[in-house]
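Quick check before the chapter quiz. The format below is the same one you will see on the exam, so make sure you can read both the input and the output lines.
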Amino acid sequence: MSTNARRRWAAAGMLLLGALLAGFGGCELINPDLPQDEAVARSDLLRDMAPHVPENVLQVLATDNAQFALALLAAVRGDEEGRERDENLFFSPHSISTALAMAYAGARGTTQLQMKDALRWSLGQDLLHSAFNALDLVLESRAQPESPYEGNAFQLHIVNAVWGQVGYPFQSPFLDVLAVHYGAGIRLLDFISEPEIARGKINDWVWRQTQERINDLLPQGAVNTDTRLVLTNAVYFNAPWLRPFDETLTEPESFTTRSGTETTVPMMHQTALFGYAEWDGGRAVELLYNGATLSMVILLPDPGKFDAFEPSLVQEIYAGIVSRMETRQVHLSLPRFAYSTHLSLVPPLVALGMNAAFSPGEADFSGIDGSRSLFISDVIHEAFVSVNEAGTEAAAATAVLFERTSVPGPPVTVTVNRPFLFVIQDLPTGEILFVGRVVDPSPLIAVPD
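Here is the expected output.
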């Protein structure tokens, strides 16, 4: 691969795939403004704002995350039971990876190994968190309140928040990782006494951080009296095109769905210089956002080839398509659209091999609380996207919910085959009503039927 191609793939791995699947994430750009009465368990350490992470390590993380993004796409697609064949799908792989990376900081043993494999990470624990921190700081630098380009600058807001049970014994090393690499402390709530109030606070935070685009991320029942920890990541992205579409050229036109039926959609039109590539079975177009540091890549399989192409799309194929991009004059017709997706990611993550984390008694998150009493009860993700003549608005949020379980030990065998005593008592008062001793249980008197 040429130097330009390698450089282009490095940028693509970090930026373009995020635009394609709404994946930008990580650092705390929005001031959460905690309520005065909300306590926080926080490390004394400050966030590392200048992590020493080589560029090649960032490229490794970007490639790993790209592999996970496309593997998750395949796993979610494979979990289509109960969903319509033509249902749209949209998610933020970086938001998901970031939230699970915070959980990974407390994983140990088999749980840690399965998470590493499922999430396609090749970096060790310490370097992984440093790399996520560095990547988030790079992404933070992309947002420009004042742009040198004509038009409005784009917005990119990413924030993490962690919510834990008041009085729960969170381990200091876990708090250190959250503080140093994710800029987060643990906001203390009372899940035991007020689970619905806690759920409302988390949902309200997500709603505010996503500019009111993600509402009720956690459905009723997701938080209960066994909840001990919730890890959240929220993303908001709003960017104008470098070359906006002319609204007067938008017209209703035909669109053939996956199942072959035709529908009418508002189709935008523009003839301009775009990134363009072809592969055996389709074409790709790259649209730059204002500032020319982020873009959207559209992958368009040839007619009748979508069902074959989608499951074949892995990181190597995507990288090959992106590396062949060249600037061409393109007459682009693109539908205007807006929709949202709500997912429980447990089934697809299990399909990727992340089993132990969801199994009470098998999960090992002892790095969080010093015991093996926590397991992940759900990973909930919601994403919103709107693409129109002016640009793209996208928002996403991920929540990783932990519950505590009391795992019974091995059964104890008790064989009452020798003399014993017994007591009959009133439970509320403890009053003993009868006391007995049995030294020979052979029937001594006849019992009436």
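If your answer matched, good. The chain has a mean pLDDT of 83.
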